[in-house]
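Here is a protein:
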Amino acid sequence: MGWSVLPGQYFKRELLPLLANLKLAIGLLLAIALFSISGTVIEQGQSLSFYQANYPESPALFGFLTWKVLLTLGLDHVYRTWWFLALLILFGSSLTACTFTRQFPALKAARNWKFYDQSRQFQKLALSAEFETGSLEALMPLLKQKRYKVFQEGNKLYARKGIAGRIGPIFVHAAMLITLAGSIYGAMTGFFAQEMIPSGETFKVTNVFDAGPWAAAQIPKDWSVKVNRFWIDYTPAGAIDQFYSDLSVLNQAGEEVDRQTIHVNKPLRHNGVTLYQADWGVAAVQVHLNNSPTLQLPMELLDTGGKGKIWGTLVPTKPDLTEGVYLLAKDLQGTLLIYDLQGKLISTVREGRSTEVNGVNLSIEKLIGSTGLQIKADPGIPAVYLGFGLVMLGVVMSYVSHSQVWALQTDQGFFVGGRTNRAQVTFEREMIEMLDQLDEDGALKQS
């Protein structure tokens, strides 16, 4: 019997007040904010080589942050670590405890009112007045005119308005719990992938960088995407203005079920998966050597030491590969640089033009671009958006003043008083206005 009672008593007397503690909730919120900032500053879901290159052991960032520390703590996938999810669950538990121990009792107290039946009770109110004469019948229309809900029992009266102000904090807490639940669900079931696809190719999502433990169901297996065309618009000065991808979603039979042209800030969404335009590259170049068929040569991104992006490929000009030239391109505008095997610039050529190198006529037919896509799925997003919307609604409701008015009619006089939880000046003006109207028919004795 003792074991069945004591745990419940411990939870109610010790654990529940601790969870509902405001300082604990603020501390947890600050910790969540701090780690969320770290998840924003530190690139998430990148490869091991990326972290080794950007967070070396010597010199360590801030003297301690190396790639080993970063991966050990899980700072490369903050939002899916057990400790971050534990913080969210603990904060949600604190909000729930606060809701049941403070907000619901406050709402219950606001709804469970009682009449004042003694004149001395009015002395405790922030604003009160006593008339030598007066009646509840004269006060009731004035209260209803101010949108009060009026209750009367014999010679006693109670009126209130703004009960939404008591419900607002509960809305805020519920909204935050919904947001936390959506965040946790998204972290457990969402995924993040990146693909670099040449124009004209079809692909399925395979290059997944980061995924929750239950994300397998979200990664598309019954549909694929074809890059019909990728292109870039340039400004008159030659800078990139915008880049676009014409994408088709194909079912398992290869039939097109959706087609959209995406660009930065305009993604494609299909079956809960979102494809963002994020990057671009030069995938290949099509050339002719004299009267040869079209040769498509892949182009690779070269290491320039941080001096910009340049793609290059080797074009052999002899069958035994003893001679050749390098073709380099820095964009898709169609101009290529030609270098010999010793690294000397020997010519330039534009798309659709030709030039002679090593006794061979080299024609450039086409530069083929590749689109860089970021692919994400986060099933918790609807719950997060719903939570944000309810937070805003709850905040607005919380600013509604909860005002209460009592009145008592006795042989000794007519007593009126009231209080509010905010907007005190507005409430006092409202009360004084009603008291002035009452005083037109009776003598105001004290206030």
Residues 282-365 form one domain. The chain has four domains: 2-104, 113-162+401-446, 188-281+372-390, 282-365. The chain has a mean pLDDT of 87. The longest strand covers residues 360-377.
